[in-house]
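Task: encode each sequence below as C-alpha cells.

Item 1
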Amino acid sequence: MHISPEMEDLLSVGYNLATQTSFFGLFDTVLDASMRFTNADGGTLYITDEETGSLVHLSDINRTLDKKGSRSSSQADMIPADDSERNLFTNASITKKLINISDIYNTRKYDIQAIKERDEKNHYRTSSVMMVPIMDTNQKVLGVMMLYNCKDDEGNVVSFDKNCERTVVSIASQMANNLTNKILIQDQQELLDSFVECMITAIDAKTPYNANHTNHVTGYCMMVGEYINVLHTRGVTEVYLNENDMEQLTMAAMLHDIGKIITPREVLNKSTRLGAGYDHLHNKLEKIVLMKKIDMLEDRLDNAQWAMDDLRLTNFLMDLERMNVCDYLTDEDIARVDFMSTQVYEPENGDPIPYLSPQEKEWLHIRKGTLTDEEKEEVHLHVTFTDRILEKIRFTDKYNKVRTIAANHHEYLDGSGYPAHKTGRDLDLLTRILTVCDIFDSLMADDRPYKKALTLDTAMSILESMGEEGKLDMMIVRCLKDCVLKGKKPETGASL
C-alpha cells in the first residue's frame, strides 16, 4: 500500500504526539508540526492557566529570525482571561473558533499593537495569520496557537490555505487528547498520593507511637535502594532497582502499616503490662487493705493474721508500679503474682473479691514487654488487615507489587515470620528491603510503648544475627549498615 509523503509525515506526527512524555514537549511538537504542514515562517503558543484562566506564553519559533524561545513567567507574557476580544489570542480562546487572516495589518477587528511592536523591534513584517484554539473533547480550551506568514515554494508570504485548516485542527486535537490523558493519569496519581497521605495521617492519629515510623521506614528503604544501585554501578552487585522498583518500594513502605487502623487502640497504645487496668487494680487492692483493717478492728479478723496479710498486701501494692513498667519480671515476681492470684477477700456481706482477676494475672505474667500473647496476635493481625485493605484498591500496573510487598513485610526467609510463614523463594528484593528497614526502625525507635530504644551497635548486631540465622537478607543488612555507619540519614516524608 502506497502512502504519500504528506500522510507519512502526518502519521509520524501522530506517533510523536502519542509517545511524547513531556507536558511541554506536546506543545512544542504540535507547534513544530503545524508550522511544517502549513509552511509557516513562525508560530507562538500560549497555554491556559488552570487557576486563573489566563493565557500564559509558552514558546516561539521564527525561522527567518532563527528564534526559538521557551516559557516565561513574566507578567508581560500573560494575557488575562478577561482581556478584550479584540486580542487575537483571547478571541480564539473565547469563541473557540479558528481565525484565518490574509494580512493582519489590514484588519480593524483586532488590536495588533503588540504584533506591530514586535515586528518593529525585529525588523520583521507579520502578514498572514492563523489562530488555532487547542481544545479537548469537552471543548475546554487548553491553549491557543498562532501561525504566521505562510510561504509558497518561492518563499513569498501568502495566505494560509483553507485546506490546511483541517490538518492543523486535527494535529491540535490529537495533542489535546494526549494531554487530557496525561492530565487524567496525573490526577489519578495525585488522588492515590493524597489517599496514602490520608491513611498515614489516620494511623499516626491513632497511636502516637507510630507517628514517625512510616516516614522513617520509607526513608530507610529509599536510602538502601539508592545505595544498592550505587553498588551496581560500581560492579559490586548484579542487583539493580529501576525507577518503577523505587516507586513501588516507596508506596509499599508508606502503606505497610495501614492495617493498624483496625488494631484496637488500647493494644497499640499499651505502654505498661496492666495498661488502663492499673488504676482499677491499685484501687481494688487499697480497698481490700482498708476493709481488712476494719475487719481486724471489729474483731472479725485475728490480729496476727491481719498483720501478716496487711504486710504481704501492702508490699505487693508498693511493688505493683515497678512490676507494671519494668523491662523484665523475675521468677520471684511471677511467684508473688501466682500467690496473690490465689488470695480472695471474703467480706461479711457481699461477694468474694479476688486479689487478682484472671486477666490481671495474665497481664502480670508478661515476662518482657507489655503485651500478652493474645494482644501480640492482635498486633500481628495488622499485616492481614493491610493485605485485605490493599486488596480493595485498584492499583495500576505501576504499583502492581505494592500489596504483596506490604503484606509480606513481617515474613522471614526461613519461614519463621508471619502471617503466612513464607520463605525466601516467595519474597522478592523489594519485600526484603522493607522487612530489614522496618525491623531496624523498630529497634531504634524511642517512642515505642513496650520497649526502650536500642543503640545503633545493638540494633545492627540483632539484624546481623537474624541475617546469619537465615531470617533476613544479609546483603540488605550490610547495605543498611554501610549507610547508617557513614552517617547518612534517610529523608523522612518521602514523596512519590
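Item 2
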Amino acid sequence: MQSEVMDFSRYRGTNPGSTPQRPLRTALVRLALLASGWLGVALPARADNPGYDRPGYGFTPVVLGAGEVTLEQGLADWSRDRQDGISSSLYSADSLLRLGLGGPLELQLGGLLYNYLHQTGAGLDYRSHGRGDTHLALKLALPSSHAAFSWGLLGSVEFTDGAPDFRNNRRQYLLGAQFNLQAGRRHSLGVYLEDVRSGGRDSRTLALSDSYSCSKSLMVYAETVLLQLPGRGHGSLAGAGLAWLVTPRWQFDLGFDRRLSGSASPWQANLGVSVYFGH
C-alpha cells in the first residue's frame, strides 16, 4: 500500500564541456559508488502515479510499472553564466520519456529538443539556436527494509548528436544515486550523488533537498548543491521551487537556483509539465 506522500524529483547538472556552459540534463553506466553527491525532492501523488523526476536536482527512486509511460517536458528552462568576460543566456526545452520495463527497472530517453543561446561582451553579440544532445538511461529501484526510506541508481549515456553550439565534445557517462527519507507525513529529505565521466575527466555533484507537502496536490522544496567541475574548480548553489499536481496525472513545476560561490552558474530557472499516461 502506498503512502499518502510520494517522492518526486529532478536531476540536472552543469556541463563543463563545449561552449556555452549549460545545465547538464543527462549523460550508461559506470559502476562505482561515489563520494560526492546529490538531491531528491518529495511531492504528493496518487496511488496510480509513482512520481516524476521533475523538479529539482535528483530523481525519484521509484520506477514505473511494466508498460507504463510518463512524459516530462521542460517548457522554459533558463540559465545565465559568465566566463572570460562573456555573458551567456541559454533557454532550453528539455524532454524526458520514461518507460517501465517491469520489476525494479525503468528505461528513459531524453534530450534538449530546442535551445536558444545569446552571448554578449567584449564586442560580441552572438545568437544561436538548435537541438541538444540525446541521452539514454536505465533506472534501478533498490530494495528497502524501511517503509520511510527509498533509494535507487540511474546510469545514462549522452551522445554527441546535437547542433554544434549545443553538443558535448565527447560522450558523457553518468552514474547517479538517490536517497530519500520520509521524515514525517508531509516532510521529506533527499540526498543525490552524481558522477559524470567524459574524456577521462569527472564532474561530481552533491545535492541535498528538504521538501514539504502543503496539501495532497502542492509541494514546496529547498535545495543546496555542491559542484566539482574539471578546469573550473568547485562551486555551490541554493534554490527553491514548487510542484503542483493539477490532476492525478498532470503536474506543473517551477523552480530556481542561485550561485553561492565558485564556478557554478549565477542563475538557473525552470518551468515544466509532466504527464503520466499509464499503460
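Check on item 2: Residues 1-47 have pLDDT under 50 and may be disordered. The radius of gyration is 17 Å.
End of task.
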